[in-house]
Design goal:
By secondary structure, the chain is of the alpha+beta class. The strands form 6 sheets. The chain has a 4-stranded mixed beta sheet, with helices on both faces. Strands 3-4-10 form a 3-stranded antiparallel beta sheet. Helix 9 runs antiparallel to helix 10 and helix 9 packs parallel to helix 11. The longest helix has 20 residues.
């Protein structure tokens, strides 16, 4: 069953050494079949995409251990990877003091020194031994990479109590070097997951961090003429023209904020979409070039279609434009995505694993969108929409529909009922009965899902 495959993988990654049990976050990849020994480098894009995966795992299964991974990974990025102005840094190195993984390795004696009476439980839970389970091949330095010995067991209270002590002790070590570039697409990916997690869990501090980052990106990585830039650092500011990946990732983020924060973000999303099409769209193939028409001329202008560790610009653009069309009702927004998916259709079927993100866009194109308009502010209604997984859906949130109706037909004539915050569940802008309480909204969403063609 697909869900069992998902659960097995989520459990294995979260239990293994690829996950930082002390400080949160994931290493770049595993070097073995058990997720035990990672390449210790930590990349922002992995935190972004895995936060989204574990959030969806939690929304579907209700397993609290997946939510814990979300909380700890977000905590890691906000604590260790955030610029004072709100941007997120790119990566932390694998080695410190010339030793790969030294920052993350433990000995039984270190555990005992840090954890006191809880040490035995920590040593047993994480499999800490004198001989260790990892040796740096270059220096011979060895220690134990912490990994949960039972993948699905709840953390014992002693371990939960001891982890802050381990984090405090580890913070005295020499940290791996930090890559302090703020990259547009990587930030947009993480902030989208952060905003989705904030909406799903009603964490206003996360939402504020997401909004701060979005404003930072639009302020520091956008030239006065509106052209986006790829990279920013404190000492040098913004550099390098943004790629299609950056535009499409930012568009995805803005459309998420339209749902979880305010429909007012749709104006900026429209600007970014128009630039994406003007600078990168290939009329011939239907796809998107990596570089813009204003970039340095190359012998062959590249286009990336395959999804690897990160989604390709074409996957991002296809999904974003389909989302935009579902909100605006403008089918011209969806035309480039549909042309691209038609071109790639046979390859998607034959090489599905090479198009993992593109398949999401394909499903969005093939499935009628469930459209949800929230008018007025209601935590209870928000929880019903964002506290569950509603595949191939779009949402807009507005304080008053009459002032925002020009942005999307989803808000046309969508009034609050008797002055109460109101939700509308629609398909192709034809809406079911408006509802003002969470039970009724849940029933309307369930009915819309059941009515979908199989």
């Amino acid at each position: 069953h697909p869900l069992e495959m998902v659960r097995t993988t989520l459990d294995a990654m979260a239990a293994g050494g690829i996950y930082d049990h002390v400080g949160g976050g994931f290493a770049r990849y595993s070097t073995d079949a058990f997720w035990l020994v990672p390449h210790f480098e930590k990349m922002l894009y992995d935190q972004a995409l895995l936060t989204g995966a574990y959030l969806r795992g939690f929304l579907v299964t209700g397993e609290h251990r997946y939510l814990r991974v979300v909380e700890e990974t977000i905590g890691y990025v906000l604590r260790d990877m955030r610029d004072a102005d709100g941007g997120f840094f790119s990566a932390e190195d694998a080695d410190s003091e010339g030793v790969e993984g030294k920052f993350y390795l433990w000995s039984p004696q270190e555990i005992r020194d840090a954890c006191g009476p809880d040490a035995d439980a920590v040593i047993e839970y994480f499999g800490v031994t004198d001989e260790g389970n990892f040796t740096d091949p270059h220096t011979g330095y060895s220690g134990t990479i912490l990994s949960a010995q039972d993948r699905t067991a709840e953390r014992p209270a002693e371990v939960t109590r001891a982890l802050p002590k381990l984090l405090e002790r580890r913070s005295a070590r020499v940290r791996p070097a930090l890559d302090d570039k703020v990259l547009l697409s990587w930030n947009a990916w993480f902030t989208r997951s952060l905003a989705e997690a904030a909406a799903a869990t009603a964490r206003d501090d996360w939402m504020q961090a997401a909004l701060t980052n979005t404003r930072f990106l639009l302020r520091e990585l956008r030239r006065p003429d509106g052209r986006l830039m790829r990279s920013w650092q404190t000492a040098v500011g913004a550099r390098h023209l943004a790629y299609a990946e950056d535009y499409a990732a930012l568009l995805e983020l803005l459309l998420t904020l339209v749902a979880v924060d305010s429909v007012e973000w749709l104006s900026t999303a429209r600007e970014i979409a128009d630039q994406l099409l003007a600078l990168f769209h290939d009329e011939e193939s239907g796809g998107f070039f990596t570089t813009g028409t204003d970039a340095e001329s190359l012998i062959v202008r590249p286009q990336a279609f395959f999804d690897n560790a990160t989604p390709s610009e074409n996957s991002l653009a296809a999904d974003a434009l389909l989302r935009l069309a579902a909100i605006t009702g403008n089918e011209e927004d969806a035309d480039p995505a549909r042309s691209l998916l038609g071109l790639l259709g046979p390859a998607l079927g034959e090489h599905a694993s090479a198009f993992s993100f593109m398949l999401g866009a394909y499903e969005r194109a093939a499935t009628p969108a469930i459209e949800i308009a929230l008018v007025g502010s209601s935590d209870a209604l928000r929880r019903e929409v964002f506290g569950r997984l509603i595949p191939n859906s779009v949402a807009v949130q507005a304080t008053r529909s009459d002032t925002d109706a020009a942005l999307t037909p989803l808000l046309a004539d969508r009034q609050m009922i008797d002055g109460s915050p109101t939700a509308y569940v629609c398909e192709r802008f034809a809406c079911r009965m408006p509802v003002t309480d969470s039970d009724a909204l849940r029933a309307e969403i369930d009915a819309a899902l059941l009515a979908r063609p199989v």
